[in-house]
Design brief:
mainly beta, OB fold (Dihydrolipoamide Acetyltransferase, E2P), 2 domains, 6-stranded mixed β-sheet, 5-stranded mixed beta barrel, about 15% helix
Amino acid sequence: MYKFKRAMFTAVCTAGVLAAAGAMTALAQSPTVVAGSQTAVSDIAGPAGAGQQEQVMESIRIWGPVLGVENGSIRIDNQSGASFEGEMVLHIAEGETLVLDAVDGFPMSLSDIQVGETVYAYIGPAMTMSLPPQTTATMVVAGVPADFKAPELVTVDSMTWNEDTSWTLVSTDGTTYHIPGETPIVPYRTRQFVSLADVTEGRQLLVWSDADNNGTKLVLFNE
């Protein structure tokens, strides 16, 4: 089962994770920096350093066209305005990174991703100081049709039932979604029954929604 908090810790500890992947030896030897900071993670020592790493372990959503797919990684031109702009290498860690289809949320193969298509990815704030910078993605959403709003990975801050049978979902980043009572919700890769009442504080899910953040489909990840 995938636990994204653990995955985000893996992304922050870039050297340890990437050393485990045979094609990533050079990355494992590179110091890392935190996006928006001049401080190398490898330079943060002792308990204070560990605390600082905990504070920056937030998921960052980036997006951009694919420049290449090779050796278990995706090169993209990050145009999101978040993290580092321009070319970036996203490593796909087996057992850690989810690569999902934007339309149905089903797993995809890297070989299905085409150069030139726009993908959305979720990463940690730390990456190597190499050029281009490199990091491990926790999730990649690909196969996005034209004029289609890609689903968003959400951590629940609150989920409130309304008298009209709809729900109000507020994510930890402050985004509010209106979830009609009949919105379909399915668990990720399990056969257990889930309902909107299972969307509780701290749970993570993919939310498909329209331009006004009205939910149309939810995929709930296991705790």
